[in-house]
Design a protein that fits this description.
The chain is mainly β and 530 residues long. Helix content is 9%, strand content 47%.
């Protein structure tokens, strides 16, 4: 399984901002923005009782055009989603301006294990010069949204931002040299046509969910890309007047990103109307109904993806001790794969299967149940069932991964970063993370950060991997990797949470340590679901 560490941005008071890795995704947005639209003419749309008339002068933006993209990353076909929308045209102070918006979210395992990104941008651009007048960027990838604003209404800028650069390049048919100012730094961006290696021509036919397009291919060169580790960036522009970017591809040291046009929607805003006679259309013959394909029946307990380091039915039994004294046994199991609320779902469980008399921590049959996506391990629901003092934490949480919310028993919506894990889904997902230690211990650039929901909010866990070592497990010497976990919550971090993973392909959790408590793996078996 291709493994890449995701980085979380903007949490300045929580952890070091790792700019390079987040910008890999952000650069993808740059070229998705080409899809906002750059028509110079506005069509006259005839409705049943009225006609819309364009009364404003032409501008290099098509107001009302909305495009969506599906983004894949290596083997992950549904890695992220992007939507671009030219919203409206009006006055910004004394200037004729167009409002442009875009939104980008990474999804599921890509969001949790590789890149966590949930960003929006609104740019008010001059309808005359096409340069930015006002820019507002918001990152929702952390618990608290981070906002950045650039206001050029008083002191105009001579440089494009990411959005206005797009219109410039699109209007020039994907050829030319343009200015770009991002993060207070100025770059030059050059686009030129290249020959498609696939079809040995400057033209290339591309088929996506939005249709089939004749396109030309442009390569993009800029120091902006070099600084972010981007190479071989290619954009397929449609060969018609719209010059829609149909396909965007680029390479990184970790793998290839690919964005394909998923849909095109044009909603012309109503500007002015005049009455017209009612048009009566002649009846049209009804098309012959096409036979519908019989949907493939759902098969319960289908095998899990071979990309995951564990299989359905894996059962891990742990002995829990407190200062070396036996407390009880806890069993983790990838129990079954069935439909849950209409979705394909994997049930993960952590259950107390044996207890020792006198202790007040573990109670028989207490534990957690988590429903997760079988491919990405993104949580769908988690249910906590405890006795004793832990019973105060008993709740059921539903994860809305698309909207970035967690819903509790009281139907309260708690905003969380997209890709937030539950504690049990993280226990399995961590086995797929790229936990390669840093070569320089004083510069831990390989720390992994993941959002995890606990009690009433999402915390950003930091996983710091160490080099391989040998531990004594049930009297045997076993190769393992220590991963130190910081939750960002001082009341938890004082107990020094650590986990040891096996160094084989299964990456099995061999030991977990939390304060005076320790859980050691004592058995591993396969119990297939019935």
């Amino acid at each position: 399984m291709n493994k890449i560490k995701f980085q979380t941005s903007y949490f300045r008071n929580e952890f070091t901002f790792i700019r390079v890795h987040l910008r890999l995704i952000f650069v993808l947005c740059l070229f998705l923005f080409f899809s906002i639209g750059a028509f110079f003419s506005i069509q006259i749309a005839v409705a049943q009782n009225q006609v819309k008339i364009q009364t404003l002068p032409p501008a290099p933006f098509r107001v009302g055009e909305r495009l969506t993209y599906n983004i894949s990353f290596e083997k992950f076909n549904d890695a992220a989603y992007a939507e671009i929308y030219a919203v409206s045209r009006g006055r910004l102070g004394e200037r004729d301006a167009v409002e442009l918006r875009w939104k980008l979210k990474t999804k599921d395992l890509v969001s949790a294990a590789f890149y966590l990104l949930d960003e929006t941008r609104t740019t008010f651009a001059s309808a005359v010069t096409a340069l930015p007048l006002y820019i507002r960027k918001v990152s929702n990838a952390t618990v608290l949204p981070q906002e950045t604003i650039n206001n050029y209404t008083v002191t105009p800028t001579a440089y494009n931002d990411l959005l206005t650069l797009i219109y410039q390049a699109r209007n020039s048919n994907g050829i030319g040299s343009f200015s770009l100012q991002e993060d207070d730094k100025i770059y030059n961006v050059t686009l030129q046509n290249i020959v498609s290696k696939k079809q040995n021509s400057v033209n290339e036919r591309v088929k996506t969910d939005a249709g089939e397009f004749e396109t030309s291919v442009s390569s993009v060169q800029s120091e902006f890309l070099v600084e972010r580790g981007i190479t071989n960036l290619r954009i397929n522009f449609s060969s018609d007047q719209a010059r829609v970017p149909v396909l965007i591809r680029f390479d990184t040291p970790k793998g290839e990103f690919r964005a394909e046009l998923a849909s095109i929607q044009i909603i012309e805003p109503e500007i002015s109307t005049v009455p017209t006679p009612v048009l009566i259309q002649a009846p049209r013959p009804l098309p012959t109904p096409k036979p519908m394909a019989t949907p493939t029946p759902y098969i319960e307990n289908a095998p899990l993806s071979t990309d995951l380091p564990f299989s359905l039915g894996e059962t891990l039994e742990y002995q829990v001790t407190n200062n070396g004294q036996m407390v009880g046994l806890v069993t983790l199991q990838a129990k079954e794969r069935k439909q849950f609320q209409g979705q394909d779902s994997l049930l993960l469980t952590a259950t107390v299967t044996e207890t020792q008399p006198g202790q007040q921590v573990l109670f028989l049959n207490n534990g957690l149940k988590a429903q997760v996506n079988p491919d990405s391990l993104a949580p769908q629901q988690i249910e906590l069932n405890f006795s004793g003092f832990l019973s105060a934490y008993n709740q059921k949480f539903i994860f809305d991964q698309k909207s970035g919310f967690v819903i509790n028993n009281s139907a309260n919506q708690i905003e969380t970063p997209v890709g937030t894990h539950s504690i049990l889904s993280l226990a399995y997902a961590v086995r797929s993370f790229n936990l390669k230690p840093s070569k320089d211990p004083s510069n831990p650039v390989n720390d992994t950060r993941v959002a995890v929901f606990l009690d009433t909010k999402a915390y950003v866990f930091t996983l710091r991997p160490s080099n391989a070592d040998i531990i004594n497990l049930q009297g045997e010497k076993v190769s393992a990797q220590l991963v130190s976990v910081s939750t960002g919550n001082p009341s938890i971090d004082q107990y020094n949470l650590r986990v040891w993973l096996s160094n084989d392909d299964k990456r099995t959790p061999l030991r977990l340590s939390f304060g005076n408590y320790q859980a050691d793996l004592i058995s591993e078996k396969q119990i297939l679901p019935k």
